[in-house]
Design goal:
The chain is an alpha/beta fold. It has 24 helices and eight strands. Strands 3, 4, 5, 6, 7 and 8 form a six-stranded mixed beta sheet that branches. It folds into three domains: 325 residues, no CATH class; 43 residues; 99 residues, STAS domain (Transcription Regulator spoIIAA, 2-Layer Sandwich), CATH 3.30.750. Helix content is 59%, strand content 8%.
C-alpha cells in the first residue's frame, strides 16, 4: 500500500502545473513549441483566410492571434492550438458567397459568426459538450472527408494560377440593360459540382510559373509526410514550402502577375481604419440564409473542435482530461471577438494541436506563445508575408484536404465493415452535393436504418437500458436491449458517474446490436477510467458476429 501511495504522489508531481506556476515551471518547453507552431500556423492561417472568402487574408492570422493570446487562458484543454481551420473553409466561403461575396458578403458573414459564437457559449454553459457523442462516427468522418474533397477542388485552380474570371459561371451573369451584353464581372462563382464539371477547362488556363511553384510546394509538403524521424522531421514543412516558394517567386518575377502574391498591408493601418467590421443586417435582409449559416458555423465548428479536444487528450503524455464544455465556451468567446473584428471562426485545430504535442508542449502557454509570435510577425514581418505566392498556400491547403480525405481513411472505414463504409460514402456525397448538415443528417438516418435492419429494436434507438450493481470494489454494468450511438448518452451518464478506482465490468452479452460508435466510445471510457487508476472489462460483445475486421466493428448477436 505504501508503495502505491508513493507512486501516485510521484505521478501527480510529474504532471505539469497550470496557470502562472505552469508558466514558470515549463517556460522553455512551451516557448519553443509555441515558436515552432507559429512557423506552421502563419502560412496556414493566411491560406485559410484567403480560401474562406475574406477580402484580406491577414484576418486569418488575427483569428489565430486571438485564439492564442485570449482563448488559451479561457479554454478547458491544455495542449490544443486555437485558430482558423481548413475544415471550416467551405462553410465560411459559402456563407460569404451566399450574402453576395466581396466586402459586403464578408461583413454580413461576420454577423453569422458572432451569433454562432453566442450559441457556442450557450452550448458550453449548458454542458452540451458531450452531445458530440451522439453523432455516428462514420457520418462525422464522412463530413470531414467531404470537407477535404471540397478544399482540394477549390484550391486546385489557385495552385495552377488560374485567373478568377475563369471560375465564374457565365450562365449566371446579369444582362446589362444598356448594352444587352452579359456582365461577367457580376456572375456567380461555380459551386463544387460546377467546378468539378468544368475543371478541365478551368485548369487549361494555367500560369506556367505559378504552376511550377505550386507543384514544387506540393511535392515538398507531401515529401515531408514520408519523413518519420531525424532532423528534418523537426522542421515544419510549411516553413520549407514558404522559403522555397518565395525564392522561386522572386526568380520567376511573378510579382507582376495580378493576384499571384499575398497582399495584406499593415495590420495597424487596417484596424485603425475599421476595427469593428461586423454587420447584422443579414438578420432582417435575408433571415433564412442568416439562420442557415449560423447553424452551420455553430454545429460544424463545435463538432470539429470537440473531436480535436478528444483526440489531443489521447496524445497528451500525462493523459489529462480536458473540460470539453469549458473549452467550447472559450472558443465561443474567441469567435465573438474575431467575428466582431473580421476574422474567420476558430476551433481547436487538429494539425497544429498534434504538432504542438510533438514539439514538446506541456501547458496552455504554448498556445499563448504561438499567438504572441503571430502578433509580432504581423507588426514587423509584413514585407516578407507579401512575397508569399498564393499557389504555395494552396499547396498547403490541398495537403490539409488530403489528410481529411486520404485513401487511408477510406480503407479504414471499409475495414470497419460495409455498413460503416456505406454511411461514410453516402455522407460524403450528400455533403459535397448538397450541404454539410444535410449530409450528416443523412448519415444519422442511414445509420439508424442499418441498425434496425441488423435487429436493433425501435424502442431502443434513443433509450439506453442498463443496470448497475456494486459489490465492494466491484461494479457490474449490465447493458440490455441495444448499445447504439443514438442511445449512448444515457449509458455514458451512468458509467462516468462511477466512483474512480473500482473494478468495472460492462456486460454487453444481452445486447442484440452493439454498433461501432458505441463500442468505440466504451473503449474510450475504458482508457480514461484506467488512466485514473481503475480497471474496466468489456465483455459479451466478442460472442456476437462482427460486421467488419476491426475490434470496434459493429457486432450483431448470433441467432442460435
Amino acid at each position: 500500500m505504501e508503495t502505491t501511495k508513493t507512486t501516485t504522489m510521484t505521478t501527480k508531481q510529474e504532471i505539469p502545473l497550470d496557470g502562472i506556476a505552469g508558466l514558470k515551471q515549463n517556460l522553455m518547453a512551451d516557448l519553443t513549441s509555441g515558436f515552432m507552431v507559429f512557423l506552421l500556423a502563419l502560412p496556414l492561417s493566411l491560406g485559410i483566410g484567403k480560401a474562406s472568402g475574406i477580402p484580406n487574408p491577414i484576418f486569418g492570422v488575427v483569428t489565430a492571434i486571438i485564439g492564442g493570446l485570449i482563448v488559451s487562458l479561457l479554454s478547458g484543454s491544455r495542449l490544443t492550438i486555437k485558430g482558423p481551420a481548413a475544415g471550416l473553409i467551405p462553410i465560411i466561403s459559402g456563407c460569404v458567397a451566399a450574402f453576395g461575396g466581396g466586402e459586403q458578403g464578408w461583413h454580413l458573414a461576420l454577423g453569422c459568426i458572432v451569433i454562432a459564437s453566442l450559441l457556442q457559449i450557450v452550448f458550453g454553459l449548458l454542458k452540451m459538450g458531450n452531445f458530440a457523442d451522439f453523432f455516428p462516427g462514420a457520418a462525422i468522418h464522412g463530413m470531414l472527408a467531404s470537407i477535404g474533397v471540397m478544399i482540394i477542388i477549390k484550391q486546385l485552380p489557385i495552385l495552377f494560377g488560374v485567373n478568377g474570371k475563369f471560375l465564374k459561371d457565365a450562365t449566371t451573369a446579369p444582362i446589362d440593360p444598356t448594352t444587352g451584353v452579359a456582365d461577367l464581372t457580376k456572375a456567380k462563382g461555380y459551386d463544387i459540382v460546377g467546378l468539378v464539371k468544368h475543371m478541365p477547362d478551368i485548369l487549361s488556363n494555367y500560369d506556367k510559373n505559378i504552376l511550377i511553384i505550386g507543384l514544387i510546394s506540393l511535392a515538398i509538403v507531401f515529401g515531408f509526410s514520408f519523413i518519420k524521424s531525424g532532423f528534418l522531421k523537426k522542421i515544419p514543412a510549411p516553413l520549407v514550402v514558404i522559403v522555397i516558394a518565395i525564392s522561386l517567386g522572386i526568380s520567376f518575377i511573378i510579382k507582376d502577375t495580378p493576384g499571384a502574391l499575398v497582399k495584406t498591408g499593415k495590420i495597424t493601418d487596417i484596424l485603425s481604419q475599421s476595427f469593428i467590421n461586423v454587420s447584422f443586417d443579414g438578420i432582417t435582409s435575408n433571415p433564412g440564409v442568416f439562420i442557415k449559416w449560423v447553424i452551420f458555423i455553430a454545429l460544424v465548428g463545435s463538432l470539429e473542435s470537440l473531436l480535436t479536444v478528444k483526440a489531443i487528450d489521447g496524445l497528451d503524455p500525462w493523459k489529462r482530461k480536458s473540460n470539453a464544455n469549458k473549452d467550447l465556451t472559450g472558443v465561443g468567446v474567441g469567435n465573438a471577438l474575431t467575428g466582431m473584428i473580421g476574422g474567420s471562426p476558430m476551433i481547436a485545430e487538429v494539425v497544429r494541436s498534434s504538432a504542438n504535442v510533438g514539439f514538446g508542449a506541456k501547458t496552455r502557454w504554448a498556445n499563448f506563445f504561438h499567438g504572441l509570435f503571430l502578433l509580432v510577425a504581423l507588426l514587423v514581418a509584413v514585407p516578407i508575408i507579401e512575397v508569399i505566392p498564393y499557389s504555395a498556400l494552396a499547396a498547403l491547403l490541398i495537403f490539409a484536404g488530403y489528410r481529411l480525405a486520404s485513401p487511408k481513411e477510406f480503407k479504414h472505414m471499409f475495414h470497419l465493415g460495409l455498413d460503416q463504409f456505406v454511411v461514410f460514402v453516402v455522407t460524403i456525397l450528400v455533403c459535397a452535393g448538397d450541404d454539410l448538415l444535410m449530409g450528416v443528417a443523412t448519415g444519422i438516418v442511414l445509420e439508424l436504418i442499418l441498425n434496425i435492419a441488423s435487429g436493433a429494436g425501435v424502442g431502443n434507438l434513443f433509450k439506453s437500458r442498463s443496470e448497475i450493481s456494486t459489490n465492494g470494489n466491484n461494479v457490474s454494468v449490465k447493458v440490455s436491449g441495444d448499445a447504439l450511438f443514438s442511445n449512448y448518452l444515457g449509458l455514458k451518464k451512468k458509467i462516468y458517474a462511477i466512483e474512480k478506482g473500482k473494478h468495472v465490468v460492462i456486460d454487453l452479452s444481452a445486447c442484440k446490436v452493439v454498433d461501432h460508435t458505441s463500442l468505440q466510445s466504451l473503449k474510450e471510457f475504458k482508457t480514461q477510467y484506467e488512466n485514473d487508476g481503475g480497471n474496466v472489462s468489456l465483455t459479451g460483445y466478442e460472442l456476437h458476429s462482427s460486421k467488419g475486421h476491426d475490434e470496434t466493428s459493429t457486432r450483431v448477436k448470433k441467432i442460435m
